[in-house]
Amino acid sequence: MDQKGIGLMSDNTPIVQGRGIVKRYGHVTAIDHSDFELRKGEILAVIGDNGAGKSSIVKAICGATIPDEGEILIEGKKVNFTSPIDARNMGIEIVYQQLAMSPALSIADNMFMGREIRKGSFMGKYLRQLDRPAMEKFARDKLSELGLMTVQSINQAVETLSGGQRQGVAVARAAAFASKFIIMDEPTAALGVKESRRVLELIQDVKSRGIPIILISHNMPHVFEVADRIHIHRLGKRLCTVDSKDISMSDAVALMTGAMTPEEAGVAA
Amino acid sequence: MSDTTKSGQDFEAAASRNETVAQFEDTRRGFVGQVQHILHNNPSMVPLTVLVAAILIFGLLLGSKFFSPFAMTLILQQVQIVGIVAAAQSLVILTAGIDLSVGAIMVFSSVIMGQFTFRYGIPTPVAVVCGLAMGTAIGALNGWLVSKVKLPPFIVTLGMWQIVLATNFLYSANETIRSQDIETEASFLQFFGSKFSIGGATFTVGVVFMLLLIIVLAYALKHTAWGRHVYAVGDDPEAAELSGVNVHKTLMSVYMLSGLICAFAGWALIGRIGSVSPTSGQLANIESITAVVIGGISLFGGRGSILGSLFGALIVGVFTLGLRLMGADAQWTFLLIGLLIIAAVAVDQWIRKVSG
Which of A36, B165, B252, B326 lies most in the core, judged by the most C-beta atoms within 10 Å? Predict the structure, then answer.
């Protein structure tokens, strides 16, 4: 029942720890006493069949849904998020599948949407003027850090960017503001081969900065390329968490679909 | 020297890395593409060009009869009410809504200002504040129905239009308060009609208010977080919410502000026509939408500039006065405005193709 993989645990406290999380919608149990663990500096992929509840468990972690039972600890401290904004205020950033950007607004505007910087002067205090130079500089710096920037165009509308570029901006936004970890929901689902490649590079770039990432994805090659560990979700709970080097892609799919048990795959630990 | 080469290499490394997908540079070429791009960034350029062209053409055709400080400021006076209401309409349309109740709110607010003063003997400034509060309250009701009950803005404001207009007639008993009475007993109601001259140009407080209102709103929309949120909500409310924008608060603020501005328009209306008439301003909703659309604000929300609405209102004013001075049938004005509306939306669709 308990598959926390205690043997692998170091003395480091996990970044996120979910214990016995339950979420019911009427008669449907979306999360059924599931555990969850994200460790320092890792990319944890969450995979599962459609309807297995992988989105539900991640939503519970970022405050988008409030679990009925169980507890969530961030860096060892119990939290009770009531909205994604609570999570964001703690330094948890989410890159949504649908990107959550306003196409007609500029890159800089989008990066600071909902957390704008005002000028410190009279204009900012009383006339609430935004500090555009500061916001633009910050946005430019962050995009440059991730190798995403040619300098002159931070005021370009997001809708003039390609899908990969938009994803890049979304990742840069998350990386700029995340102090704890980033959740990425299907970041390569809508992208072409080349663009997916670039986004995977970005994910590894972000990881190398020490920010752990939860990656929800259907794309097994992408999962196996970047993930350190794989959380396999099945029937509303965590089936097991495996090291991505210890399992083959076909075994992972077999576990995910129930064609194989963790014992058969030799990963039950 | 080694430093320079090193940074040069870094730059090259970064550049080659960018090659795959990360180029933000504009690769479009050609004059048409350039124009499209400029318009995309400055959506009020189109109505401004049309406005300047219209003034020049009528100026050439009519000479000093049209091209005089007097005629120019007359146009301002004639468009002040539509201009103020169009400012309110612009805010709502930027959030991808529409407000059909603007005219009704305007008239009802003016009736409240008048009736409170004359029927109940309330001091005029207090009556004015009551009128402004009523406009804001109706706007708040609109906003609540749109944001919380999630009804389409078109339906909400279509219903509110009828409700407010009917209330207006029932409450006022269809009674007009005469201009002379207001002038002698409550001239503060006509404050927006106060005139002053600079050279041959005649301005009214209403005109100055309209211009200041547009400038303040243009500033707020462009340079404050609230303004950015208005655009984001109009663009994609779900994305805005996920980015941490309080969509409900933004929508409420927009509809309440719209109601308040319409109430100010009601006050300005008393200044313009002198009397308080429950039957005035019937076309304000259509006229304001016309100004906004000609001004290049997208009916789909999130795009356009409030300056465009002012230009849109002025274009209508220039056409109306110009054609009247030429002795043309008033129907020609409507015909041309109709063409402009369709042309403006066609241009909007074209500009949006930049998103390709």
Answer: A36
Contacts of B238 in chain A (CB under 8 A): 98, 100
| pLDDT tens-digit series, residues A86-125 | 888 899 998 887 777 888 888 999 999 888 888 888 888 8
- A140 part of a folded domain: no
Q: B88-125, pLDDT tens digit by residue?
A: 999 999 999 999 999 999 999 999 999 999 999 999 99
Instruction: Say whether residue A127 is in contact with chain B using an 8 A CB cutoff.
Output: yes
Distance from CA of B126 to the nearest CA of A (A): 27
Using a CB–CB cutoff of 8 Å, tell me whether A179 touches chain B.
Answer: no
Q: Which residues of A touch B219 (CB under 8 A)?
A: 127
Domain count, chain B: 1
Quote the ipTM score.
0.80
Angle at Cα A54 formed by Cα A53 and Cα A59, nearest 5°? Answer: 95
* Tens-place pLDDT, residues A45-70: 999 888 888 888 888 888 888 999 99
Contact B243 A100 (CB under 8 A): yes
List the domain range (segments joined by +) for residue B261.
Answer: 43-350
* Assigned domain for A249 exists: yes
What does the pLDDT look like over B276-297, one tens digit per residue?
A: 999 998 899 999 999 999 999 9
CB–CB contact A104 B302 (8 Å): yes
Q: What DSSP string describes chain A?
A: -----GGG--SSPPSEEEEEEEEEETTEEEEEEEEEEE-TT-EEEEEE-TTSSHHHHHHHHHTSS--SEEEEEETTEEE--SSHHHHHHTTEEEE-TTTT--TTSBHHHHHTTTSPPBPSSHHHHHS--B-HHHHHHHHHHHHHHTT---GGGTTSBGGGS-HHHHHHHHHHHHHHH-SSEEEEESTTTT--HHHHHHHHHHHHHHHHTT--EEEE-S-HHHHHHH-SEEEEEETTEEEEEEEGGGS-HHHHHHHHHTSS-HHHHT---
Q: Which residues are paired to A19 by β-bridges?
A: A71
Distance CA B240, CA B242 (A): 5
What pLDDT score does A150 carry?
A: 53
| B218 located within any domain | yes
Query: CB distance B228–A101 less than 8 Å?
Result: no
Q: Which domain holds residue A232?
A: 14-104+157-265
> Would residue B9 count as lying in a domain?
no
CATH code for the domain in which residue A78 is found: 3.40.50.300
pLDDT digits over A225-265, tens only? 999 999 999 988 899 999 988 889 999 999 988 888 888 87
From chain B, pick out residues whose CB is under 8 angstroms from the CB of A161.
24
Residue B229 with chain A: CB contacts under 8 Å:
113-114
The answer to whether A198 contacts B20, with C-beta atoms less than 8 Å apart, is yes
Q: Does residue B140 lie within any of the structural domains?
A: yes
> CA nearest A74: which of A15, A153, A148, A140?
A15
CA atoms within 13 A on the CB side of A153: 17
Domain membership of residue A127 (yes or no) is no
Please answer whether residues B242 and A113 qualify as being in contact, where contact means their C-beta atoms are separated by less than 8 angstroms.
no
Number of structural domains found in chain A: 1
Residue ranges of A 50-89 with Cβ closer than 8 A to chain B? 84-85, 88
Most A CBs within 10 A among B7, B17, B24, hence the mutation to make, goes to: B24
Is residue A74 one of the residues assigned to a domain?
A: yes
